[in-house]
């Protein structure tokens, strides 16, 4: 039986760990804003009459996030006591299953995120600005590939999975997974990405805990980004979207027929690709339903009682400040 004094000490330690993580990522976010502003200002001195190109904007963002902001967060959080998950091998069949589950989770989470964004767009009577989508549409394929498929997955998994999970695993699987997903989702700073980043972050955290191998999470993150972002934008670039929209909205059906015939090879490839993804989603959804009872969440060395979980995880200075900062950013994004 744990007495009140021991319980208080345990909760105080948990709050301290989570608060330090919150302050670490808040500091990283502030550094990102500062560095981004400085770089944009410097570039403005050299190119005063030009707006930043998509490539330059993505380069500025990547430098600010991956070379400045996240390293600062790591430095602040590095001193927190940590434990590593037990290393377990994963067979190719289980890896394939993990990919199917992962993609299905991202797909349905993205649908939910789009629904929420659509509701906000309806209420404000104008579409919500999707800065990430606009940025990717105006970025060259090589830079998209470098940032979205290589730099982002490696850095984000090392920070939001390995760093966070290693330092919260002593508090139990549930706490480690939830904090990893929440910080990852909020750190994106917009509603369009929050929902699927939150659920993807939790799944990859669970996978890291079960395998103890961060390379598994990194490779899955790479696959998801490649399929969801790079390939999709690459196919869209092969079509004249404005002409497609115009032909679709035209009262003359021959316009759409002619557009389809003129772009038949590309349309066939896109159709086959979409059908393949729908099969992946369907299989992943079935596996998710069948596997839901197999997800095991173990208690940690320090147990956070259910009646104080929300208070311990959220109502500490660091995580509360971090959450408020990014919630304000998300609200600003919705109404800009």
What's the alpha carbon Rg, rounded to whole Å? 22 Å
**Helix amount, in percent?**
over 70%
Query: Count of helical segments?
Result: 13
**What class do helices, strands and sheet pairing give?**
mainly alpha
Beta-strand content estimate: under 5%
Helix/strand order: HHHHHHHHHHHHH
Task: Compute the average pLDDT.
Answer: 87
Uncertain spans, ≥5 residues at pLDDT below 50? 1-8
- Beginning-to-end CA distance, first to last residue: 53 Å
Number of domains: 1
Name the shape in a single word. globular
Count the E strands: 0
> Biggest β-sheet, characterized?
none
Summarize the structure.
This protein has 336 residues and is mainly alpha-helical.
Molecular structure report:
The protein is mainly α. It has one domain (4-334). 79% of the residues lie in helices and 0% in strands. The protein has helices spanning 4-46, 54-77, 92-124, 131-137, 141-168, 173-187, 191-211, 214-237, 241-249, 253-262, 264-291, 309-313, 317-334. α5 runs antiparallel to α8. The N and C termini lie far apart (53 Å). The relative contact order is 0.15. The model is unreliable at 1-8 (pLDDT under 50).
């Amino acid at each position: 039986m744990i007495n009140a004094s021991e319980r208080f000490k345990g909760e105080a330690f948990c709050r301290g760990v989570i608060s330090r993580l919150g302050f670490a990522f808040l500091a990283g976010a502030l550094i990102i804003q500062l560095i981004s502003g400085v770089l944009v200002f410097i570039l403005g001195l050299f190119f005063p009459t030009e707006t930043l190109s998509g490539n330059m904007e993505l380069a500025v963002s990547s430098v600010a996030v991956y070379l400045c902001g996240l390293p600062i967060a790591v430095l602040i959080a590095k001193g927190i006591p940590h434990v590593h998950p037990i290393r377990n091998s994963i067979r190719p069949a289980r890896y394939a299953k993990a990919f199917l589950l992962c993609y299905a989770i991202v797909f349905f989470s993205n649908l939910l995120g789009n629904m929420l964004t659509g509701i906000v767009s309806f209420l404000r009577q104008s579409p919500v600005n999707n800065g990430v989508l606009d940025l990717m549409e105006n970025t060259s394929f090589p830079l998209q590939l470098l940032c979205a498929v290589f730099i982002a997955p490696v850095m984000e998994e090392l920070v939001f999975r390995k760093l966070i999970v290693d330092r919260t695993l002593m508090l139990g699987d549930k706490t480690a997974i939830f904090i990893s997903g929440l910080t990852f989702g909020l750190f994106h700073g917009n509603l369009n990405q929050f929902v699927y980043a939150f659920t993807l972050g939790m799944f990859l955290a669970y996978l890291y805990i079960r395998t103890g191998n961060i390379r598994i999470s990194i490779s899955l993150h790479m696959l998801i980004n490649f399929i969801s972002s790079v390939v999709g934008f690459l196919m869209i670039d092969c079509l004249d979207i404005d002409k497609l929209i115009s032909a679709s909205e035209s009262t003359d059906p021959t316009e759409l027929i002619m557009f389809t015939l003129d772009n038949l090879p590309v349309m066939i490839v896109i159709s086959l690709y979409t059908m393949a993804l729908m099969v992946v989603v369907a299989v992943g959804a079935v596996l998710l339903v069948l596997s839901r009872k197999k997800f095991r969440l173990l208690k940690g060395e320090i147990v956070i009682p259910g009646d104080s979980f929300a208070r311990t995880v959220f109502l500490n200075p660091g995580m509360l400040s971090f959450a408020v900062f990014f919630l304000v950013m998300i609200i600003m994004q919705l109404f800009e």
